[in-house]
Every structure is written in C-alpha cells, then in structure tokens.
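Table S4 entry, Chloride channel protein.
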Amino acid sequence: MDDRHEGDHHDIEVEGGALHGFERKISGILDDGSVGFRQPLLARNRKNTTSQIAIVGANTCPIESLDYEIFENDFFKQDWRSRKKIEILQYTFLKWALAFLIGLATGLVGFLNNLGVENIAGFKLLLIGNLMLKEKYFQAFFAFAGCNLILATAAASLCAFIAPAAAGSGIPEVKAYLNGIDAYSILAPSTLFVKIFGSIFGVAAGFVVGKEGPMVHTGACIANLLGQGGSKKYRLTWKWLRFFKNDRDRRDLITCGAAAGVAAAFRAPVGGVLFALEEAASWWRNALLWRTFFTTAVVAVVLRSLIEFCRSGRCGLFGKGGLIMFDVNSGPVLYSTPDLLAIVFLGVIGGVLGSLYNYLVDKVLRTYSIINEKGPRFKIMLVMAVSILSSCCAFGLPWLSQCTPCPIGIEEGKCPSVGRSSIYKSFQCPPNHYNDLSSLLLNTNDDAIRNLFTSRSENEFHISTLAIFFVAVYCLGIITYGIAIPSGLFIPVILAGASYGRLVGRLLGPVSQLDVGLFSLLGAASFLGGTMRMTVSLCVILLELTNNLLMLPLVMLVLLISKTVADCFNRGVYDQIVTMKGLPYMEDHAEPYMRNLVAKDVVSGALISFSRVEKVGVIWQALKMTRHNGFPVIDEPPFTEASELCGIALRSHLLVLLQGKRFSKQRTTFGSQILRSCKARDFGKAGLGKGLKIEDLDLSEEEMEMYVDLHPITNTSPYTVLETLSLAKAAILFRQLGLRHLCVVPKTPGRPPIVGILTRHDFMPEHVLGLYPHIDPLK
C-alpha cells in the first residue's frame, strides 16, 4: 500500500500530480470480504514500512519511487552534447573501477564477518566443552546461555537504537530498491555498520539464523556508499563521481553489490550473478551482466587470498567456517528408478514444508508486531526471550540423545574430540562415546551443515536425532526470523532441509544406491526451492558449495518439483515479506482483472499542473501543500496557439530552480539565461543527505510575484499513453521501462492535454480493487 494519499500531505510522500480518494479505496477493500488480497502488515496505520523490523510493527516511514528513466530536459541535453571523449572514457573507467571496489570491499567484509563469528563462537564453545569435561553441567549451561544472551542483546540494541532497517535479511529491501522503491535508511551508512556487527553478534549468539541474507544487504549498502560521490555536507565531494548522481547508475552498482554479497557469503561467484538476475534485479542487460560477473570474480579472488593467509593459523580460532566448500561424496553418482522416486518424494515434501514455513513466518511476524510496536525496549526483551529459548533447546535437547560408541577404526583423539567443532562431541558421554545431537546443536550453523553433509558413515546420526534436530531447527527458525537482529533465512532452511533429507536417506538406505550425504544435500535443495522459489541460482550456488557437478541433474529435478508444489499454496518468502511491508512492488506480469480496465479508470482527483512560465508563488504553494514529485508542464497561449503538454518537471528540480532565484518580473520565456547560469550537476540526485526541502527556501513577497521559466528543467519527452490503453498493457510498460511517472493523454482533441499521471501506486491491487470492489481479482 502506498501511503502517499494520506490526509496530512506534509508527512507522507505523493508520487504523481493527482490527488485520489485514498480512504475510499481502502474502505472498499475492507468492506468487501470477497477480495482475496491480504492487507500489508501495518495497513491499520496507513503507513508503508521499510525495514525488516517494521514488518513486525515498528518504524513506519514514507516511501518514494526512484527515477530510473533518463530525464531528458535541456540541462541533460546540454551536458550530453558538451561531454568530451575523455569524459566518456572516464565514465566508463569509473564504472569498472567501482565494480572492482565493491567486490574488494564486500569480500573483505565477508571474510571479517566469518572471522568474527568463528572466533567468538569458537571461544564460547571451547569454554562450554571444558566445563562439560569437568562435569560442571550447570556452570556450562549458564555460561552458554549467558554468552548467547550478551551477544543477542548487543545485536538487538544496535538494531533497535541505531538502525532499525538493518534487522532481518535485507534481501526484500534490496529487491524493492532494484524494483524502483526507495525508503529512508535502507542503504544508509548506519545500516551498513549495524548490518555487519549485528550479524556477527547474532550468528555467534547461537540463533538459528544465517549471515548470507545480511551479506546481500551489506553488499548493496557498500555499493550505495561508494556510488554517492561523497558528501556536500562535509565537503567530501568527489568530482569524478558527478556522473553517478542519478538513480539509474546507482541501481546498476547496487545490483553488483547484491551479487557480490551472495558471492562473499557462499564463495559462489556464478551463483551470485544468477541470484541478482533471478531474484534481486527487475531490469537487466548484457553490459550489467559483465560488470556483475567481474565484481563477483573479484570477491572470489579476495576470499581465496585471505583463506590462504589464514591457513598458517594467524587468524585465531578461524576454522573452515562458511568460506570452505562443504564436503559431499565426490564419487560417481549412480541412481536407479527407486532413487528417482525417492528424489521426487523429497521434492514434494520440500514444497509442502516450504510453503508451510512461509505461512508460519507470516503469522509469527504479524504476532511479533504487537510486541515490537511498543518501542525499542520491547524489541530487545523479545530478542532476549528468544535467545534464552534457543539456548535451552541447544543445551537441553542433547540430553534426550543416547551416547553412541565411537566408530571402529577412527583415529585416537578424534572421537570424542575436544576441539571447538567436531562431528564427535562427548557432551555428557563416557570415554569412547559421543553425543550425536550435541554435534549438531552445540556447533556453529556452518559446522552443523558440514556434519549433515558428510558421507563418512551412514550411522553417525540416529534417526531419532535427525527427527529431533529437524523439528527444533524448523520451529526455532520460524520464531527467530522477525526479531530485531540481522538474520538470514538461507542457513536455517538449509539446516532443516539437510536434516530431513538425511533422515529420508537413512530410512531408504536398504533400497537406495544414493549416499546419505547426497540425500542431505537434496533435502536442503528441496526446502530452499519450497521457501524461496528460486531454481537456477540455487542450483548453481549448491553446486559451487559442494564442488560436485555430478549432482546437477538431481539438484535440478528436486528444485523444480519443490518449487512447483509450493507455488500451489503461496508465494515465496521474500515476496510475502515485500507485501507485508506494504512496498508497492511492480510484478513482471499484469493481474488478470487489469484486462477489464483502461488507464483512465484508475486516474482520479484534481490534477496539479504548471504553465511553462509560471508565477513563483503558485509553484511554492503547490510544493508546500502537496508532496507530489512530478508535475505536468503545459504550454499555453501566448507561447503556443493551443494548450499542449510540454512534459514533466520533478519536485527536486523545482526546488533547486527556486533556490537559485532565476526569476523575471515579466511573463516571458528566458530559458536560455537559466541554461547559462546553471549546470546539469546542480540538479543531480542528492547523495547521503536528504536534498532540498521546501522549508529551506527563503523567498520574499516580491519574489513570490515574479515568474520562472520551467522549460529548461522539464522532461520534454515523457512516456505517454492514451486514456483507452488497457491497464494491463500500461502496467507492463511501466514496469519494463522502469518509470516513475506515466502520463495519460486524451484520445479526442479539444480537451485538456493531459488526463492524469499514473504512478506505481495506481497499479497496486489495494488501489484498483478499492476503486472497483465488485471486480473478481482472479478474472
């Protein structure tokens, strides 16, 4: 839901130049129970939310669209014509240089993230292990729970007080941004800071969360920071980066950053490119493909170099972490008809469990909103409660598991092991025995996945152990996602999928030729496909993680089946979260009911437009009383014989023009004088600052009566459609071109030159079905 149509236009953002009856639209949906669309999480507040924590009921804020369209006004044309060949080469070089810096910085952050988690969690687990060896069980529990609680509180405090937008995965925010939606602090430096350290503390605190989703958000924040061109506020402006003062180039950089985040999290450079293509980006082209691939290649080289550096033991307790490929049986993969039937069964189970997981996550997020909307203290208290519950499960459940004798033939000292991470943890067991459930629960998430994927012995984990671990991880993953810490979904989903995959492998062992480690991998793939609904990128990421191309056909099959089954029940988890946030995301297809409507059917209200030469006071009043971001500019007599549409002027450009006070006392055209006194970079997109506001203008009464020529800042070639164009075609056009404003013009002459302006809000189901509640949304 777009909150731009609230009654208080000073606190909300309005995209187009038309005012609509927002309350009437919403009430039309609420009163008609036949409409099958769920309301966003904070629909009762009539506000859009931007951060993950806002999903659970906090920090609502206005949103606005991004200007991905090339704004062809006189300043743009003059700047383009005046560019020298050296400047064009400079621009091309900078795009590749920034791609390199994004890959370098993201790779470093990804490595430091793993280094921090491995050392903090390693110290904690060594402490617990030493206390357990001395049979100080209560001290071990309180030390374990206390360390987790301190780390969890630190992560929650950072998110609650410094950057609420850093909570959660961040992938829905990046996906929305690349679709053309901007919201306060999504990619701010404070969000980057909290995302890095909050993720380290949260993962090290033993939560069933991953650092992979936050790494995507981190990469996007790094790209946004590097592409800002400095800060005018602190006089740190980089002259070379003036070319990037627009949303179009920043979108490409952030796409590279998102791909780099996946590459850094999984050491999967090709998977990162495909993830950006399949899930994150809404627009793609070949030139961007090359730069994204180059960025992920830089990440891979950086990680490889840093891992080699740590092999000598100079990185503390840094072990294999999440940066080393998981070890799955690399022998020949032979399978028969029963094996294929087992894989089909895994795919079906993954689709059902994945759709159920998404449904329960939706319910939990809406329940948490009641707690989180009460303030930061309640958010922290919720995190502490979940931390205590997670600690009790991780330390208490292994007591339900029986001690298992060490496998015959294993080297002395390796079972049970005393180290930080091992598949054979003694816990409370006597010598030469190990507790298999503690090897999964009292370990880092990455080491638990490695233990599940191992193919050393089929009987390392009991069937009961796998069942208990699956239920625990499945439930803890659901209740953990949505609290005020940076948390990813990849690792919880892989853990749950790998556990039930290995469980199925154990049950089908007598009739199957496949290894239990391979079953574990296929289970993880099926659950990933059932929750996230990605296929190509997940397939490549899993293959890069395991370094075994022989499993490609099986992974492809299980992903396709799980996605197909899950799509019968609900949408992917990231799509659900985008909807819950109330972000007006433009899908790549039109809804069926849009075929029954035309463009003029969703355009309503009074249209605010300006003449080409307009009085300053009229513009100031319109900017003061509304929050519109686009205004039609009309050529009228005596400058033309009849009224005609000149184009669209942006709010930000109008504010710059008024601040410069290029006015005239006579109502005449003087655009050439404005072109000589201003430069295109004066109208560039604001960086980390918020840009000009109407309150920043200081205009006298005499200046209010003067005139200004709007032609130099007007986009004289806006996209226009006839009022009789199908709404479905208009929606597809709007989305594929990355528009912010779409002008609707009359079909017959003799009428005003513009009927209205379509923005992304006008295509949202809440808006359209609010205007026409009698329409069946499925037809």
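The chain has three domains: 85-312, 337-406+433-581, 592-771.
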